[in-house]
Amino acid sequence: MHDGLSCGGRWKFGVGELGGAARKLTRAIPPPDSLAAGPSLRNDCGVNVVRNIASVLLWPRRNPIRRVLVPTMGALHHGHGELIRIARETAGEGGEVAVSIFVNPLQFAPGGDYEKYPRPEKVDDEFCRNAGVDILFRPSAEEMYVPDFSVSVEENSLANTLEGKSRPGHFRGVCTVVAKLFHILAPDAAVFGEKDFQQLAIIRRMVRDLNFPVEIIGAPTVREPDGLACSSRNQYLSAVEREQAPVLQRALQAARQFGARGERSAEKILAPAREVIATAPLARIDYLEIMNAETLLPAGEAGPGSLIVVAAFFGKTRLIDNLRLS
Ligand code: AMP
Q: Which listed residue (77, 78, 80, 170) is catalytic?
């Protein structure tokens, strides 16, 4: 491996061409001399030795523009807009907001909706322009996954329940693409929606376990006026399915209200939620559970950290939602 300390020049890594953004994407890592100013000790050979990861992260960057990334699959809606707003706030004055739009084949099941997933490029471009996005990264699947692509990232604990159980391989696809986006765009922070609560928890775990120097920020779920969580997949719903879909949020609210009266049993708290969903003849429950929000394991008894989660089909469209119990 090339030894950066002995080369004497500037260390750099970049991502090659990314339209006009390529210049911004080159992060300079300090040359050896400036490392001495950081939390390191020069040993007898004159080599800067740093013995812990936190110290490495404290090394000054030569180009300290704060970049905040919002990874998406496009078909942008108010939920994405809120993530971009939070990214802008987090980036601060002089910082930059990057949005990636990539319909990631790796996270779709064979026979899933990968082909028909909406890709309204022009509308998305305009959305990003109006939202003040600095970099829009829209790679091709061919570039992201070369034909003999063979390395992926897998989380093996939190991914075993809920979405992971219903959609085998989904989170391997998510972790792999997010890891790639982090390497390519080198963000300081990234914003993810709490609507995909399990995804957010898994990304946090991946960042912790693989030492990505990226702050992960969770953003609250944005809803339509009738309570339905905004989703790119809502546009698949027929008029009558769309009319019934807000039942999911109403069901979660009913469970929360029941829990607020002091009921602890998860089964009992879920009963009113089931009743509410039963009023929508087109809804077919995939799962409806109370989970521990940290471990994502089913909770027999509801507590302060409990989360009620639902996934349901309306026709072929699968929607998810969640709500904190307190
Ligand atoms: P997607 O384009 O569906 O892959 O979503 C991209 C990001 O937007 C993910 O972090 C989602 O959790 C987030 N997101 C999607 N819908 C919403 C919503 N209604 N409110 C907040 N965040 C959302």
A: 80
